Amino acid sequence: MKHLIDTQSLSKEWLDNLLSLTQRIKQKPQECKVTGKILASIFFEPSTRTRLSFESAMLRLGGSVITTEDARADSSATKGETIEDTVKVLSYYSDIIALRHFEIGTAKKAASVSSIPILNAGDGAGEHPSQALLDLFTIYEQGVDLNDFTICMVGDLLHGRTVRSLSCLLAQFYKPNIIFVAPPQCKMSEDVLFILEKHQIKWRNEVDFKKAIAESDCIYMTRFQRERFADMNMYESVQNTYQFDTSCLPLIKKNAFVLHPLPRCGEIAVDVDNDPRMLYFKQAENGVFVRMALIYFFLVLNS
Ligand code: NCD
């Protein structure tokens, strides 16, 4: 495995090793080093967690980072340079690339010409594999039986790459029961449902948000992806459909937990944050450990 582009090219053995490596790094972060190596973090779309946790991961491993402020505005892409040419050049300047782009398929395109590993940090409404891995790690850490648990995914399932990647990852390697909660305009797409069917995963669409969260062991909230709506009226009509607030706390299972890839835009009320079942900040923290494991895998274990 030379790159991390999507969840479908992973194997169970690789995944198990990555989860154990992440756990090891979380316990003893100083044990893994990539001293002297350089990460290029190239983001054509805004990011706080993915970008800064990749950069923090590299620095914590003893490596260095080169970056552009905003690749969409500052890189030679504004002069018309193709992603292939950019990546070929970056292969001489760095040892590994974290790439985020607004178009589906860009990470794959970049990987096709890159001599160094490409880590897909999100390609439009396509995939976000490192997020799915950190989501999985956070679920796994809770000690749930991944072959016997219910997860509901709530919000913009059409444009949200995190829920797309997480659904595929879970379906390929485990036996979750998945409940999708979305307005009709933002339902999970057929390509993902096809993968669920292929792996005989139990899934359903549910219109009743409160019913879905009451049944679930993991509640995965997402924001409506404003930037991906062609029609702003449609965005405004769906934007406030679901909110996890204090009225939801008594409804959910004692051992359930709530995740969100963040940023949140009102779909989780701030006043539930102190409930111990709200794990989204822990999830964001795990992003650093999972990305340390990914960088360490590609630069040390895989080389
Ligand atoms: C997500 C993304 O960029 O897809 N954020 C993240 O990486 N943590 C989710 C989002 O932007 O809504």
Observed structural traits:
alpha/beta, 9 strands, four-stranded parallel β-sheet, five-stranded parallel β-sheet, 303 residues, 11 helices, binds N-carbamoyl-L-aspartate
The separation of the N and C termini measures 10 Å
Given as residue ranges, the uncertain stretches (5+ residues, pLDDT < 50) are: none
**Portion of residues in helices?**
40-55%
Beta-strand level of the residues, as a percent range?
Answer: 5-15%
The ordered string of helix (H) and strand (E) elements is HEHEHHEHEHEHEHEHEHEH
* Chain-averaged pLDDT: 97
**For the CA atoms, what is the radius of gyration?**
19 Å
Category from helices, strands and their pairing: alpha/beta
Tally the helices: 11
Can you give a write-up of this model?
- It is a single chain.
- With 303 residues, this protein is of the alpha/beta class.
- 40% of the residues lie in helices and 14% in strands.
- It is built from eleven helices and nine strands.
- α2 packs across α11 and α6 crosses α11.
- The longest helix has 22 residues.
- The relative contact order is 0.16.
- The site of N-carbamoyl-L-aspartate has 12 residues, from α2 and α7.
Question: What is the strand and helix layout of this fold?
Answer:
Blueprint: H1 12-27, E1 38-43, H2 49-60, E2 64-67, H3 71-74, H4 83-93, E3 96-101, H5 106-113, E4 118-123, H6 129-141, E5 150-154, H7 161-173, E6 177-181, H8 190-198, E7 202-205, H9 209-215, E8 218-221, H10 232-238, E9 257-259, H11 280-301
Parallel strand pairs: 1-2, 1-3, 3-4, 5-6, 5-8, 6-7, 8-9
Bound molecules: N-carbamoyl-L-aspartate (NCD).
